[in-house]
Amino acid sequence: MKRSFNKECSVARAMEVVGDRWSILLLREAYYGIRRFDEFQYYLGVAPNILSARLKKFVDLGMMTRVPLPQHGGRYDYVLTKKGRDFFPTYLALKKWGDDWLAEPAGPQVVFRDRSSGRQIEYPTPLSARGKPLELEDIEIVAGSGAVPFNRKRFGAQRPLAKVKPDRAGRVPRKSVSDKDK
After folding, report:
1. Shortest CA distance to 53 belongs to which of 69, 41, 43, 42?
2. Which pick of 61, 86, 126, 168 has the fewest CB atoms within 10 Å?
3. Which of 23, 58, 85 is the last residue of a domain?
């Protein structure tokens, strides 16, 4: 069955890369320092054919590189590329959500600490230009510079941020769907 989604959507495209369980867990293990096929298989408990397919996909899409090990003929390390490493904040956000809503009563299984200070790291939080944490209601969705006509109509034309005047609370009013149709 052919998938139907907005192929121009960055989230839909990202889900094509990392949107299945094994892909996210494979990245988790790579972030934990795992590099070899047998180690991925041991820690994930995944069938070899599924692991081979995910590793090949990540290499083909530039998330990992496959580096031959000269001392072990025919064996490879799978090393994260910049593209694979750049997914780490997204992984942290997913982990935080899991820790907040799904962890066992005793707490999360794993925490991340800053190597230099030893302190547990803070997870990414969207911040306003003034450095205040933003809630979903504080965020405006507008068409981006690469928006297709459907999304330009749906979210309106992108306005230069400098010309938008926020109210006293620092919010920019958003037109409702009914306002846009008038």
Report:
1. 41
2. 168
3. 85
Give ∠ CA 174-179-182 in degrees, rounded to 5.
150
Quote the Cα angle for 17-49-26, to 5°.
45
Domain count within the chain: 2
* Residue 100, in any domain of the structure: no
Q: Give the Cα separation of 25 and 29 in Å (integer).
A: 6
Which helix (H) or strand (E) segment holds residue 78: the answer is strand 76-80
**What three-state secondary structure class fits 64?**
strand
State pTM to two decimals: 0.78
71 lies in which domain range? 10-85
Token pair listed for 81: 């590329």
Angle at which helices 21-31 and 10-18 cross, to 10°: 80
Angle between helices 21-31 and 88-102 (to 10 degrees): 110
What CATH number should be reported for the domain holding residue 22?
A: 1.10.10.10
- CA-closest candidate to residue 29, choices 73, 94, 78, 68: 78
The per-residue pLDDT for range 18-64, each reduced to its tens digit, is 999 999 999 999 999 999 999 999 999 999 999 999 999 999 999 99
Segments in the chain below pLDDT 70: 1-6, 157-167, 169-182
